[in-house]
Amino acid sequence: MSTKNFGTILAIAGAVAAVAAVCFSISLNPPSAVKAQALDQQRLQGMQQMDFAIKAYYRTHQALPDQIGALENNGLMDRSNWKDPVTHQPFEYDLAGKTSYRLCADFSAESEPDDYPYGNDFRKHHKGHDCFQLDVHGE
Q: Domain locations in the chain?
């Protein structure tokens, strides 16, 4: 075998290996899964901001807001991130007690236990509609 043929074979083998590596990488982490995880991360960040604003409101008023709009009216935070990044619908806020409430969203994918480093309240969620039961005292 000549050096020229060996070089051609080596180049073809390298190209095949590169294509195989890209295909393997995509099969392990498809772009749709990466996008779903990024959207869920945006949802969780927005919900965490809502949680922070709700707790700040409680510290000031010694009561939970009846509606999430009360937070904006008091100038506590900008609500622009409190909406789903796809549907642009606001996240759900429901009173559950004097100091407890629920924040809900529609998630693209099931979370992995260590996916999100946002604190214990916002680590695990299911695919689809899911809620976090929260309390101003962190209980």
A: 31-135
Token output for 130? 């899911």
The helix/strand count (H/E) of the chain reads as 3, 3
Q: Give the containing element (helix H, strand E) for 58.
A: helix 31-61
Report helix, strand or coil for 37: helix
Predicted local confidence at residue 111, as pLDDT: 80
Are 59 and 76 contacting, i.e. CB atoms less than 8 angstroms apart?
no
| Full-model pTM | 0.71
What is the DSSP code (8-state) at residue 113? T
92-95 and 128-135 strand pairing: unpaired
Give the span between the Cα atoms of 59 and 99, in whole angstroms. Answer: 11
User: Is pLDDT of 115 > 70?
Assistant: no
3-state DSSP assignment of residue 42 = helix
